[in-house]
Design brief:
The chain contains one helix and eight strands, in the order H-E-E-E-E-E-E-E-E. It has one helix spanning 14-67; strands spanning 79-83, 86-91, 100-107, 110-116, 132-137, 149-152, 176-183, 194-201. The longest helix has 54 residues, at 14-67. The protein is globular and about 100 Å long. The mean pLDDT is 81.
């Protein structure tokens, strides 16, 4: 006796197919969102690193100029003025044997450097204002109560009570300067601010 067995192959219904497509689409969308978010975070972190490096290089230049402060060519004291976010010194910043007046200050979210060369013959004079300016560091987000510059006298660190000295500082008392920068290319996004703090000794003032 011959028995015929028929096996019916059941395909996906339209509803099952639509459900599968929906799940697949959601998976692709989730992966894409994760990829884009990861890329943005990595890109932002890279930009923060680049900005921090540029700021560090700028601060390093300021430190070199501060270490080499010297008497102006007109006989003026090596430091002209010193306040929270504004510092004026005399230093040969371009190594030409002439002492320039250097002006470091905060302008918005940038640290600027202005300079002025002396003029005249045997008797040198420095005109008012900066001759030229350039950006030293960008994306600086120091709060109003967080200065860029802090000043210390010759008794620091032994004398903690009187240091840092009040500003505007008596320039004759300054022997050490701290530069504090908070850096963030977008304060509204993570990660938090990157903070850079550096101390520099004004070596040429040890004889005063």
């Amino acid at each position: 006796m011959k028995i015929n067995i028929t096996v019916k192959k059941k395909g996906m219904t339209l509803i099952e197919m639509m459900l599968a497509i929906s799940i697949f689409t959601m998976g692709i969308a989730g992966f894409s969102l994760l990829f884009v978010k990861s890329w943005k975070i990595n890109s932002y972190t890279f930009e923060m690193g680049q900005s921090s490096l540029a700021a560090y290089q700028g601060v390093s230049k300021i430190m070199v100029y501060l270490r080499e402060v010297r008497q102006a060519d007109n006989g003026a004291y090596p430091i002209r003025s010193a306040s929270d976010n504004d510092l004026v010194i005399y230093s040969d910043y371009d190594k030409d044997g002439i002492t320039e007046r250097l002006h470091f200050y905060k302008n918005g979210n940038q640290i600027m450097m202005g300079y002025r060369k002396p003029s005249g013959g045997l008797t040198k004079t420095y005109a008012d204002g900066d001759q030229e300016t350039k950006v030293i560091a960008s994306n600086i987000v120091n709060e109003a109560n967080v200065p860029i510059f802090y000043y210390y006298n010759k008794n620091y660190p032994g004398d903690q009570a009187n240091n840092p000295v009040p500003t505007p500082a008596n320039v004759a008392n300054i022997r050490l300067v701290k530069i504090l920068l908070k850096i963030n290319i977008d304060p509204n996004r993570a990660p938090d601010n990157i903070e850079s703090s550096s101390f520099v000794e004004l070596r040429n003032l040890n004889d005063y």
